[in-house]
């Protein structure tokens, strides 16, 4: 599986990677909180010091992206992460579908409680 980050998405993420965050990893986390069912979740993009339950890494044109392999069934072979300035949010899509039109970005770093 591959993830292509658009220039807008890379620029937005670069603003979160300062010299203290260079080692933090990106993860597509399948969030089911408040969804009622484990197949009704949505992906969120996280940056964190230690990735939770990651057992699969997706290649990308930006940085490697970790996921839980059990959630790979919800993803396509090639995907794009874009940034939508009008809504100040990310979008996860492929040629086959829009996986999450308003994907949240969450920083789960120890010294950073930021969420966008």
UniProtKB/TrEMBL annotation:
Residues 1-105 form the Core domain. InterPro entries: ATAP_core_dom, HesB-like_dom_sf. This is Core domain-containing protein.
């Amino acid at each position: 599986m591959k993830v292509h980050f658009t220039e807008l998405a890379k620029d937005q993420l670069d603003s979160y990677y300062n010299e203290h965050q260079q080692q933090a990893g990106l993860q597509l986390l399948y969030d089911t909180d408040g969804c009622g069912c484990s197949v009704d979740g949505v992906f969120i993009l996280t940056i964190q010091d230690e990735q939770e339950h990651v057992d699969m890494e997706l290649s990308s044109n930006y940085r490697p992206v970790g996921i839980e392999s059990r959630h790979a069934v919800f993803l396509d072979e090639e995907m794009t992460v874009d940034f939508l300035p009008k809504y100040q949010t990310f979008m996860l899509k492929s040629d086959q579908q829009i996986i999450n039109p308003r994907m949240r970005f969450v920083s789960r770093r120890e010294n950073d409680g930021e969420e966008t």
